[in-house]
Amino acid sequence: MKLSATLRIALRALRRNKMRSVLTMLGIIIGVGAVIAMVGVGNGARAQVEARLATLGENMILIYAGSINSSGVRIGFGNAGTLKTEDAAAIMREVPGVTAVSPETRAGVQVMLGNQNWYTNLIGESPEYFDMRQWPFIAGASFLEEDVKSAAKVVVLGQTVALQLFGNEDPIGRIIRVKHVPFLVVGVLKPKGLSLQGQDQDDVVIVPYTTAMKRLTGATILRTINVQAESPEIMERAQLELSDLLRQRHRILGSRDDDFTVRNQQEIAEVATAQSKTMFYLLVAIAIVSLVVGGIGIMNIMLVSVTERTREIGIRIAIGAHGRDILLQFLIEAVTLSSIGGLIGIVMGYGTAETISHFANWPTMIPLIYVLLAFLSSAVVGIISGFYPAYKAAALDPIDALRYE
């Protein structure tokens, strides 16, 4: 029998039971839709993390003060004053492969211009910080090393602060007050958006770290040291060497805990994506279960179909149809059900991903390769689940089939 004739018979059989066919496809639709939506949300989350991680700069290693025991309580990083400016200088001087170091201190401050005021984040840094973070200026320029040495009262504004204080006016050369201390605005930074923690990176004023420590906060220690390695290949080695150097400088011997925490960009990304990975695996499990259930549903319905059409099969064999024609017919029915279900699932997956993107403000990315894999998976499920019913139909004895009631 010609393949076209077998295909027509298979499609006609599916059309006779439209509701049954739709319900049979439902498991495949849900499974494939879950795969597509999962891939879209997962890739979107990863891309968002990578984009925010890129705002840290290239080959960055971050050293946080902290992770010490104080009266039996373990203090998290960033919450204990254990780093000094001398540590930053020693890292730059003694660790091979380090191209730039910027000591960092932070505080919350009130900034004022006339009757305008804004509470923002104060960051004390070195001039290298802007190149390390790959943070360009839209107006003005960075402060200089001479400003660091003299603890000069100069400030660089993030875009959010510039808009709040100056609106559309040019801030360069203007005087603002930071904690009632007058500062000269020398630069305005290009917007960076949200950080990995979801904070506005542009809601910030940046001054020389010596200025922040001597004139604004009175701090004598650092919360963070930003370090840049010359290439990704040496980051791990540089991280180990600067850890050893800090242990020596802080006189940490033997198995005693470090009083600092070192993180590189990859480690920060892994922490940031831990929750999205859990959701990813959960959705994968749901998708696999849905596909398996869909496959079982197709097999079940095809077995019922073989039983219902036993006499029809017997008549076809009696008038000349071969076993392979019967086998092919039922395989076509199973693959058609799973393939159509796969296509509908792809459309639903796209729709679900776009809905999530719209209402949750969450980017989605669905590479074509995953769409093809999802569709092929649905076709394979159809072949596997339809083979046994098709084989059973092809193996029917025509005489027994014709006598079947």
Structure description:
The chain has helices spanning about 5-15, 20-55, 85-95, 130, 145-150, 160-165, 210-215, 235-250, 265-270, 275-310, 310-320, 325-360, 370-395, 400-405, and strands at about 60-65, 70, 75, 100-115, 115-125, 135-140, 155, 175-180, 180-190, 205-210, 225-230, 260-265. A 6-stranded mixed beta barrel has the order 4-5-10-7-9-8. Strands 2-3 form a two-stranded antiparallel sheet. It is elongated. The protein has about 400 residues and is α+β, with helices and mostly antiparallel strands. The longest helix is centred in the C-terminal third of the chain and has 38 residues, at about 325-360. The protein is built from 14 helices and 12 strands. It has 2 domains: about 5-50 and about 275-405, no CATH class; about 85-250, no CATH class. Helix content is about 55%, strand content about 20%.
Topology record:
Layout: H1 3-16, H2 18-54, E1 60-65, E2 68-70, E3 73-75, H3 85-94, E4 98-113, E5 116-125, H4 128-132, E6 137-140, H5 145-150, E7 154-157, H6 159-166, E8 175-178, E9 181-189, E10 204-208, H7 209-217, E11 224-229, H8 235-249, E12 260-264, H9 265-272, H10 274-308, H11 310-318, H12 323-360, H13 368-394, H14 398-403
Parallel strand pairs: 5-10, 7-9
Antiparallel strand pairs: 1-11, 1-12, 2-3, 4-5, 4-8, 4-11, 6-9, 7-10, 8-9
Helix pairs in contact: 1-12, 2-10, 2-12, 2-13, 3-8, 10-12, 10-13, 12-13
Brief rundown of the structure:
With 405 residues, this protein is α+β, with helices and mostly antiparallel strands. It is built from 14 helices and 12 strands. The protein has helices spanning 3-16, 18-54, 85-94, 128-132, 145-150, 159-166, 209-217, 235-249, 265-272, 274-308, 310-318, 323-360, 368-394, 398-403; strands at residues 60-65, 68-70, 73-75, 98-113, 116-125, 137-140, 154-157, 175-178, 181-189, 204-208, 224-229, 260-264.
